[in-house]
Write a structure and sequence with these properties.
It is a single chain. The chain has about 230 residues and is mainly α. It is about 70% helix and about 0% strand. The protein is built from 10 helices and no strands. The longest helix has about 35 residues. The radius of gyration is 17 Å and the shape is globular.
Length: about 230
């Protein structure tokens, strides 16, 4: 693969993370732009998630209003009484299934070490699914920046940060989270969002592990290895 093709692919991967993160915010009509972008970028990547993204976009565009989608979003991710699919990593990673545990503190340290601070406009916990997807967007962005400057060591460094982040954080809980969405969602939109998320993250993790082939195959989360 030549450098231009590689850059095109990595830019598609970067922006797919941004588009996917937007799907985990309260739905509004502007989401249609993100869904079209997600579908287009998954096409560039040849991702198995593409068919599910197309179903999401088609369903979204067919809705006369977003009330049903907003109700399902609230049931799954907001409450008020209980969250059917809590969108926080610590819920799945902490034995006591609590928010802001040791895994969250480690996550904040990972953000800081990469030079990232959460935006003042971000009002949720740092291990919210959207925040972790946005962090992957940032890591791929920095990888591309280094690649465009022909800085191979820095490029490989950011690829390794992506692999480590998927292994230790996002990839360690996102499959259980997505399975819960698929089971509990009442709309096909969110069921397909779960399928897109699993397929896209699995492809990313496998490709990064293949790149760093000296790493043990056992690094794969159980959901990926099976």
């Amino acid at each position: 693969m030549n450098i231009d093709d590689l850059l095109m692919r990595e830019k598609a991967r970067r922006d797919a993370y941004k588009n996917l993160a937007a799907c985990f915010h309260v739905p509004n009509r502007e989401l249609t732009t993100m869904l079209k972008g997600l579908e287009r970028r998954l096409g560039v990547l040849g991702s198995g998630a593409l068919s599910y993204a197309a179903l999401m976009r088609n369903e979204f565009e067919s809705l006369k209003d977003l009330e049903e989608l907003k109700i399902d979003f609230a049931r799954l991710f907001v409450g008020p009484y209980s969250l059917l699919a809590p969108p926080y990593g610590s819920i799945y990673l902490e034995g006591e299934r609590k928010i802001m545990g040791h895994s969250t503190l480690d996550l904040l340290e990972t953000y800081r070490n990469a030079g990232v601070d959460l935006s003042d406009n971000f009002r949720d916990a740092p291990d919210h699914i959207a925040a972790e997807l946005e962090f992957m967007y940032f890591l791929v962005f920095k990888e591309i920046e280094a690649l465009e400057n022909s800085d191979i060591d820095t490029t490989l460094g950011f690829l390794e940060k992506q692999r480590a982040f998927l292994k230790q954080h996002l990839g360690a809980w996102v499959f259980e989270f997505a399975d819960t969405i698929e089971e509990k969602a009442e709309t096909d939109f969110y069921k397909n969002l779960a399928r897109v998320t699993k397929a896209f993250i699995e492809q990313n993790f496998d490709e990064l592990l293949d790149l760093f082939a000296t790493e043990a195959h056992g690094d794969r989360p159980m959901s990926v290895a099976n």
